[in-house]
Design brief:
The structure is a single chain. Helices cover 49% and strands 12% of the residues. It has 15 helices and nine strands. Helix 3 runs parallel beside helix 6. It folds into two domains: 230 residues, TIM Barrel (Alpha-Beta Barrel), CATH 3.20.20.210; 61 residues, no CATH class. The chain has 315 residues and is of the alpha/beta class. The radius of gyration is 19 Å and the shape is globular. The strands form two sheets. It has a seven-stranded parallel β-sheet with strand order 1-4-5-6-7-8-9.
């Protein structure tokens, strides 16, 4: 969005996240333009790592870079315990500001990074194609890996609880890179710790969404985390995904973000296909199958939201 790009000309991503008024402004920008049904707080999945002792930078053209990667048991033991109110006050204050500004009954969604994704950034020092160092630690030093999972699960639980207490009415766990794991490895090395996060939030009575990309082989396991909603990417048909997840759960997805660059007729055809697969069943949250791309034509996003509302007879 042009409004966001204007802000980014003056501020880095971390600077926006550190100033509640700016983070709230960016959160509300799509609400004012797109007629979507929920807002999601502007933040980054790696933000809570900074107060834990991680040296994080968003390098131009490279994305997040961690200058002191975590690769030994001693590195993990040095990580500080997260107190959300003291450690990430700007994010919590931004949530409070947004909830006061949102129109009507529009909900705000909070979020955190999933365990495998955050661990891989910490261990690799940035993004990775094959997660070599991460899997080496997971396979070669399972006790060290478990310690890291326990520390991150505790941090994530505290962080998400803090967001709910500040006003978030749902939370999402973005384990974007969990699809790099086999079902066997996810079940053994990540699932129990993610279940602990979800269980810690149940007393707060807010919906929990879990999402990962390339997770067609993990959908039943994602459902077994206890999350209320399972996000689905575009690599699997929505109806087949929902059958594997179970109809007792809601699903979110799953338009390919690149389709927003397609001609309107093709966008309409594919939106209709997803809605047809949902079959009018309660619990479908129409969304993209992953993050929106920076160059996306905003008018095509508006077209999709209007089309979905028309097709589902909202309003």
């Amino acid at each position: 969005m042009a409004e966001y790009r204007t802000l980014r000309e003056k501020h880095t991503l971390l600077e926006i996240c550190a100033q509640p008024e700016l983070a709230a402004e960016v959160t509300l920008q799509p609400i004012k333009r797109l007629d979507v049904d929920a807002a999601i707080i502007f933040a980054d999945i790696l933000l809570p790592l900074v107060p834990m002792g991680i040296d994080l930078e968003f390098a131009a053209g490279e994305g997040p870079v961690i200058h002191n990667p975590v690769r030994t048991r001693a590195d993990i033991e040095r990580l500080r315990v997260l107190d959300p109110e003291a450690a990430v006050p700007a994010t919590l204050e931004a949530i409070r500001l947004v909830t006061r500004e949102l129109p009507g009954d529009l909900p705000l969604i909070g979020f955190a990074g999933g365990l495998f994704t955050v661990a891989s950034y910490m261990i690799e020092g940035g993004s990775s194609r094959n997660y070599l160092r991460t899997k080496q630690l997971m396979y070669g030093e399972p006790e060290t890996w478990t310690l890291l999972m326990e520390r991150l699960a505790d941090m994530t639980s505290r962080y998400l609880r803090g967001q709910v207490e500040a006003g978030a009415r749902a939370v999402q766990i973005f384990d974007s890179w969990a699809g790099a794991l086999s079902p066997r490895d996810y079940r053994a090395h990540v699932l129990p710790h993610t279940q602990r996060i979800v269980a810690s939030l149940q007393a707060l009575d807010v919906p929990v969404i879990i999402f990962g990309t390339g997770t067609s082989g993990l959908l039943d396991l994602l459902a077994s985390t206890g999350a209320d909603v399972v996000g689905v990417d575009w690599r699997v048909d929505l109806d087949r995904a929902w059958k594997r997840i179970g109809y007792d759960r809601a699903v979110q997805g799953n338009l390919d973000p690149v389709l927003l660059f397609a001609p309107r007729a093709e966008i309409e055809r594919q939106v209709d296909a997803i809605l047809e697969q949902a079959a009018g069943r309660d619990g479908h949250i129409f969304n993209l199958g992953h993050g929106i791309l920076p160059q996306t034509p905003v008018e095509n996003v508006q077209f999709v939201t209007e089309l979905v509302h028309q097709r589902t007879e909202r309003g």
